[in-house]
Specification:
about 130 residues; mainly alpha
């Protein structure tokens, strides 16, 4: 069983679960994560994938509302936020050391690289 499979099972056990549209986007992001790493890291990587998708849509100018629902960009941002929050919850369940390690790996510096706020011209990529 892959890390993504374990993360999906972990996510399925959350009560209450996320709304259907959000859940679908989160599961799609999990399916994109190839790593067979611990659940918190898989959830965090899936969250970053959602943030990358939102940034790509903004840069491409495709973040317009297509109907009565959420824009694709808004859904990506909500899914990314939810997945990172769940990553923290999963790490906390493993203990304070796991939570500290997750915070070091996926904290502000990692998000800055994702946004290229460090100015090196190279956004964070998987």
């Amino acid at each position: 069983m892959t890390g993504a499979d374990n993360a999906r099972r972990w996510l399925d056990a959350r009560e209450p679960g996320p709304p259907a549209e959000l859940r679908e986007r989160m599961l799609a992001a999990l399916a994109e994560v190839a790593a067979s790493t611990p659940v918190p890291a898989v959830l965090a990587e899936a969250g970053l994938s959602c943030f990358r998708a939102a940034l790509s849509a903004v840069h491409a100018g495709t973040s317009q509302r297509t109907g009565a629902g959420l824009t694709p960009t808004a859904l990506d941002l909500l899914a990314g936020d939810a997945l990172l929050t769940y990553a923290c919850e999963a790490a906390a369940e493993e203990g304070s050391e796991a939570l500290a390690a997750l915070a070091r790996e996926y904290g502000a510096a990692r998000l800055a690289r994702l946004l290229d706020l460090e100015g090196n011209g190279e956004p964070d990529r998987p």
